Amino acid sequence: MSQRNLFFIRAVWWAVLAFGAAAPLCGEPDPRPYKAPKSEWLTDVTWLKEHLKDKDLIVVDTRSQKDYSQGHVPGAIWLDVSDFPARTNESGLQELKKELEKRFSLLGVTGTEKVLFYEETTGLRATRALWLLTYAGNSNGKLLHGGLAAWRGAQYPLSWERTFRQSQPFVVRETPEVLASTDYVARRVKNPECIILDVRSREEYAGRDSSKHCARNGRIPGAVWLEWKELLDDTLNFKPVADLQKRLYEAGVTPDKEIITYCHQGNRSSNTYLVLRLLGYPRIKNYVGSWHEWASRLDLPADKDEIPLNP
Asked: 43 φ, ψ to 5°?
């Protein structure tokens, strides 16, 4: 990227931030209710209600099967996205490819349909499902902002009838530009042109997590910390764009750098990946193997805090 382009990107973003900060000072506050940030892949319940019977729309419920059985969007198909493989070596990615072909074939996706994912809120499962579909080479994925909670809040109807579609062979065409492997991340540790963004809790980042889910505790050396929840509101939905931009800039996460998101096993980092995509960051990758895979590679370095966390 040229210096001229970098200057232009920075200038535009600082202008947006300045305008967002000044806007509340100009006249009375906007009385209109907050709406989701605009994007071709981020939709709201009004759009879904209008298009629910479209023949080229597949609605996918990514909550637990129990939650699905207790009421869902009419016509929604249940899909388990809770335990996809999360290793990024050659054999791990081949296993992921096979699992994607197996599960997405159950949706009856031929390649022309829009595929909309939702869960209770904007959450983790639906965002990971959308990222996985994108990695699989399908660019028609959508996310329901606010999830089923927003659908209920609008007093739209629920269904208790399970929906199935005719299975169709699903061919994965990997999109490597959205995925970072362990080896890829290792080559970019402490690279000034790359930000490795740790979106786990402060305790996990500091290396003081006691869950014992990984081979060791700590973080990738040089990683910047910004917990994924800081980009969401109290209902776990995306904050307004100006707030997102401000918080990312405060953390030093700027669009002139390559950004690699990671967490424990690629769930929380998928959510943050989509926030960055929503804001137009041009170079983003999700390290889907995340700390679980990195920690298992004892040949790779790890950092942790030496000073105890404040109570």
From this structure: -120, 165
Q: What is the CA radius of gyration of the chain?
A: 20
* Catalytic site includes residue 194: no
- Predicted pLDDT at 2: 53
Catalytic-labelled residue, pool 26, 194, 214, 263:
263
Give the 3-state secondary structure of residue 294: helix
Alpha helices in 85-239 (DSSP H): 90-105, 125-135, 147-153, 182-187, 202-206
Q: Is 195 exposed, middle or buried (0-12, 13-18, 19+ CB in 10 A)?
A: buried
Element (H, E) at 210: none
Interval 54-88: pLDDT, tens: 999 999 999 999 999 999 999 999 999 988 878 99
Domains of the chain: residue spans and CATH = 42-174 (3.40.250.10), 180-296 (3.40.250.10)
The span from the CA of 88 to the CA of 103, in Å, is 19
Closest by CA to 70, choosing from 157, 9, 158, is: 158
Structure tokens at 82: 């809770």
